[in-house]
Amino acid sequence: MLKADQILALAPDAASAKAGSQLAAPAKWGGLGLNGNALWGECQGSGKLPYRTQIDLGEPAFKCSCPSRKFPCKHGLGLYLLRAAEPSLFNESEAPQWVSDWLDGRKARREKKEEPASERSPEAAAAAAAQARKREDKRAQNIANGLADLQTWLEDLARDGLATVRERGPAFWETMAARMVDVQAGAIGNRLRRASGLCFQAANPDWERQLAAELTSLYMLCEAHGRLDALPAPLQADVRTLVGWTVPQETVLAGPPLADRWQVLAQYTADEARVRSRTTWLRGAGSGRWAMLLHYAAGEQGFDVPLVAGTEFDGALCFYPGAWPLRALIGEQSGTRPIGSIASSPEFDTALDGYAAALAVQPFIDRYPMMLDAVVPDSASRNTLRSADGRLVALHSSFRHALHLLALSGGHPVTVFGEWDGACLLPLSVWHGGRLFNFGTEFRS
User: Fold this and answer.
1) β-sheet bridge partners, residue 41
2) Which pLDDT score, from 0 to 100, does residue 117 have?
3) Model confidence over 107-131: pLDDT tens digits?
4) Considering the entire predicted model, what is its pTM?
5) Is 61 in contact with 51 (CB distance < 8 Å)?
6) Long-range contacts for 105-114 (Cβ within 8 Å, ≥24 apart)?
């Protein structure tokens, strides 16, 4: 059973968390019940009929009859919080029909996803395949032309040097980013906008190194795409993904699943125009395998897969194709609960060896998952960690929670998880006193 703070971490925004907390009172609910799969209740709102709220405990997943477009809504949060605070109010019983219908519908949709696509006539299938190839060939040619232009642009920039980039202003970057969007290489356009942002971060003393690394990676990507057919098939998949091609989720979920007890070790969100992205880092407790989940939500909508840092679940993940597969989808999930313990991690030098091995097969890795045991924050500089073997680990310049990390450690060793970029570590969470503290949600700047 999730704790109150973990339930509140599922809220799409602070207002929903506050409203949900206010609804976690027995007087506001009727028809409470639960079974092994779900819990439910009815909350009286402003209308004549109460809102029917239900939670599938396996993921968890939420549904409510209220008109809110937020996910989960305040009623779902309130019901879940009430269960955590007053479990005796929920009697084990048979689910009412409206709950059973929802659970059956979820099961049917899962089974439908696993079924093969409906059969079509050979002629129709051939015609559809020919049209798809034609569209793909046209897009591939557009992307190739666009990346050739980008490579020339990068070569010109290298000749002029980085000393002039701030003088050129944002329009210099936006023009090329828009060009990438026009040729359907939107992922490259986003990276150019990210590079532009680095130029104008006056408080970032490391912006030149970070910008140079980003531009070098983009140039390498142009070179790799230019000889795509000569690359190993797994690396081809990485290059295509980085350029902007997508792999259908059905294709990923049809791949071999990896079953394990998956621990959610960190989570953070980012805003990109009108779309929010959420990155979630998992590690298999048995396999030691790292996995990254990416989810997107528009406007005020919540993310369709509720996960909370500091929890774990039994399930199976399917990984996207690649030379060093990292991004994954959840194929099966059940038994979500707080993390009880985490496995020990290698020393810093061993972790660097793992990074080098990953980079050797996939040279475009820009964020590598790294967990370090028994590290002590530097109370003087606040921008380094001292590893168990005495090594100094530089912290990323964007890390804004040095004081929180120092306060948690109290000058004693802690376990820190973060993203390594080849030179610095960006801490995302810390394990201390049998609990995971996630910087992305628990310590907001």
Assistant:
1) 53
2) 46
3) 887 776 655 545 556 777 777 778 8
4) 0.77
5) no
6) 106/56, 106/61, 113/250, 113/253, 114/253
Whether the Cβ atoms of residue 139 and residue 240 lie closer than 8 Å to each other:
no
Residues facing 259 on adjacent strands: 316
Contact 62/82 with Cβ under 8 angstroms? no
The residue length of the chain stands at 445
Query: Does residue 318 contact residue 328 with C-beta atoms inside 8 Å?
Result: yes
Do 277 and 270 touch, CB atoms closer than 8 A?
yes
pLDDT of residue 136: 87
Section 280-307 average pLDDT: 86
Measuring CA to CA, how many Å separate 90 from each of 87, 100, 385? Answer: 6, 17, 47
Q: At 311, which amino acid appears?
A: T
Output the pLDDT for position 280: 96
Contact between residue 99 and residue 54 where contact means Cβ atoms under 8 Å apart = yes
What is the distance between the terminal CA atoms of the chain, rounded to a whole angstrom?
29
The full 3-state SS of 230-288, as one line of letters, equals: HCCHHHHHHHHHHHCCCCCHHHHHCCCCEEEEEEEEEEEEEEECCEEEEEEEEEECCCC
Taken in order 262, 384, 325, 61, the sign of the CA dihedral is positive
Q: Per residue in 311-338, is it b (16+ CB within 10 Å) or e — as a string?
A: bbbbbbbbbbbbbbbbbbbbbebeebee
Q: Which is it for strands 392-394 and 290-298: parallel, antiparallel or unpaired? A: unpaired
Long-range contacts of 160-166 (CB under 8 A, 24+ apart): 162/208, 162/211, 162/212, 165/199, 165/211, 166/199, 166/200
- Chain-centre distance for alpha carbon 315: 17
CA dist., res. 9 & res. 206, Å (int): 32
CA distance 25 to 82: 6
pLDDT greater at residue 247 or residue 13? 247
Helix (H) or strand (E) holding 346: none
